Amino acid sequence: MGKRLSKIYTRTGDDGSTGLGDGSRIAKDAPRVVAYGSTDELNATVGMVLACEHVPDPVREVLTQVQHDLFDLGGELCIPGMAMIHDGDIERLEQQLDGFNTDLPALKEFILPGGGMAAAQCHLARTVCRRAEREVVTLSRDEEVRPQAVRYLNRLSDLLFVIARVLARASGHGEVLWQHERRKKPAS
């Protein structure tokens, strides 16, 4: 285990810089910091899903593992050249996604975010995941980023969508479908 923080504030970031895991310093708004910051935010939003009541144990187990993965991914993004997310992690997400999706009805319409608190929080996590993915892609244009990082976030956003559907159904709220026909056509 690396250094332990005995003092939380260091004042070293007062100049607008932050330290990476390899000891180098970069601007707090650098694409690398933005990417791992959004990954950290994503982890917090997954924690919000887990804080909701009535999250089924299989979902709870998967999302707890996801939190550990996201911590690893943040470390990978914070330490240039580090490899902590692997193909097996992505394959696991795909298997979990397939497993949860098996019992869901086929989609015929878009779903609005909602379906109870846990499902709504999961939809929020999904959107934060998509943003984190975009920011990792942005980072990869200028710096080395392993493709597993982008692939993991891409699969995770799909998994979060499916879990939101599972949670909406489990809560009894059900899914709210987008009603594209709700707009009346203007009279000619």
UniProtKB/TrEMBL annotation:
Entries under Pfam families matching the protein: Cob_adeno_trans (PF01923)
Q: Catalyses which reaction?
A: 2 cob(II)alamin + reduced [electron-transfer flavoprotein] + 2 ATP = 2 adenosylcob(III)alamin + 2 triphosphate + oxidized [electron-transfer flavoprotein] + 3 H(+); 2 cob(II)yrinate a,c diamide + reduced [electron-transfer flavoprotein] + 2 ATP = 2 adenosylcob(III)yrinate a,c-diamide + 2 triphosphate + oxidized [electron-transfer flavoprotein] + 3 H(+)
Q: Does the keyword Nucleotide-binding apply?
A: yes
Mention one GO molecular function.
Answer: ATP binding
Q: Does the keyword Nucleotide-binding apply?
A: yes
UniProt feature coiled coil, ranges: none
Matching SUPFAM superfamilies: Cobalamin adenosyltransferase-like
Q: Per its UniProt entry, which superkingdom is the organism in?
A: Bacteria
* The Cobalamin adenosyltransferase-like domain, residue ranges: 8-166
GO BP of this protein: cobalamin biosynthetic process
EC number(s) on file: 2.5.1.17
- InterPro entries recorded for this chain? CblAdoTrfase-like, CblAdoTrfase-like_sf, PduO-typ
Please list where the region (Disordered) is annotated.
1-24
Cite the entry's keywords alphabetically: ATP-binding, Cobalamin biosynthesis, Nucleotide-binding, Transferase
Q: What class of enzyme is it?
A: transferase
The protein's annotated pathway: Cofactor biosynthesis; adenosylcobalamin biosynthesis; adenosylcobalamin from cob(II)yrinate a,c-diamide: step 2/7
Write out the similarity annotation. Belongs to the Cob(I)alamin adenosyltransferase family.
Q: How does it assemble?
A: Homotrimer.
Protein name, UniProt field? Corrinoid adenosyltransferase
Originating organism:
Oleiagrimonas citrea
